[in-house]
TrEMBL record:
GO CC term, one of those recorded: membrane
Any Pfam family: Aa_trans
Chain segments annotated as transmembrane: 51-75, 81-102, 130-150, 156-175, 187-209, 237-259, 271-292, 312-332, 353-376, 382-405, 417-438
One GO MF term attached to the UniProt entry: L-amino acid transmembrane transporter activity
Membrane topology qualifier: Multi-pass membrane protein
Name this protein carries in UniProt: Amino acid transporter transmembrane domain-containing protein
Residues annotated as domain Amino acid transporter transmembrane: 50-445
Domain of life: Eukaryota
Subcellular location: Membrane
InterPro entries named among the record's database cross-references: AA_transpt_TM
Signal sequence bounds: none
Amino acid sequence: MSKEYKDVEDLRPVQTTDEGEVVVRRRGSAASTHDAVFGEMTEHGPNYRNVGWLGTVALMMKTQIGLGVLSIPAVFDTLGLIPGIICLLCIAGITTWSDYIVGVFKLQHPAVYGIDDAGGLIFGRPGREILGLAFYWIFVGGSGMLGISIGLNAVSAHGACTAVFVLVAAIAGFLCGSIQTLGRISWLAWVGLTSIVTAILTVTVAVGVQSRPTDAPQVGPWSSDYELFKNPSFTEAISAVSSLVFAYAGTPAFFAIVAEMRDPKHYTRSLLICQGGVTATYITIGIVVYYYCGSYVASPALGSAGVLMKKVCYGLALPGLLVSTTLFIHLAGKYIFIRIFRRSKHLSSNTMIHWIGWIGCTLGVTVISYIIASAIPVFGGLVSLIGALLGTLMSFQPMGFMWLYDNWSLPKSERGRWWTFMIGWSAFVVISGTFLMVGGTYGSIVGIIDSYKVSGGSAAFSCADNSNSVHH
């Protein structure tokens, strides 16, 4: 059943199905599809609506399982095993609800493509601009390049200057990220997901069978010094929780993913499979690696099982890290591209202007991500900073406001106890996200500054080997 609505720019009304599209047939030509976001799509242009529900699972899991999982054992070392698991489950619960609201909001407002469109609906132009900063994915793209440089350093035994490896990562990410549609990238997501999961399972098994971590004292008796409870400072604790937020902060990507689904009604199915698999993986990896390594766990965790296994694990992980970087560059580039060409024929036609614009967007994102990766070469610090400053802002507060936007004005006859509970829950998500954002950003900045003060710490645009960081 079709309905009429005004899109996020309050321009002319358009006719749309519940999925945000209507098929238009023209005399003497093939059928074309009008999408609320991508406009009129024909067989002569890119098919933006071609991701199935299984492909959606892969894309979702790849935006989640990547860099974040590699910092979870170190988070447990900071918080203690039991508080670490509790915090992880709390973050998982809140972000799963946030992710669910993304799908609901998309079905109710088909013209929404990104989190900036949601911000525009709720808060007007200021909300659109604040949430429209593609800086989030640009920063995450930088952390992806940093992860690749660590992997290349590990595999090659620091065979070249780290800044060169970051450049190699940037070039590879740009070439793959410039593929036009998520439908064509979804197979890469499966490859990347298999790669990263294989690597982290390998390091998990390796730390379990070895006698002691490589960085632990190699003489005398040794047993793991893992602790169930620890007593971290506020900055240490809040930075650790920010790293957990980063591990689940694929939420803003889910807007773009559901926008390219063939049938957005299958979104919730894909989401539940994704979040269940991600949470089980995170808990298993975190517990096993921290249990066997204790305070000698490395961050990223793939370096925890000795030199040989570090090379093996990073070799297995490199395709996954590349796919993560590919996705982040693609998402940031496409956000800017759609923002420029929305309602233009060049958005969904393979014209010269289309290609110049698209390549220009992905190249610009790549260059900025490269600068970020080279300027903040401390993996743990960069991950917690992104999680705190941008991950919470993109994964907590907007979703609370999105539910309130759609439900605050319900008629009194439809307001029951559930409505009252959800008002409180939405407010809690907004407030807790704001607290994590402010406190976590402070803690992360303090941690990065401290890492620069340490003798031998990584420096900006450095040639130093960045694959030997140990979390103490």
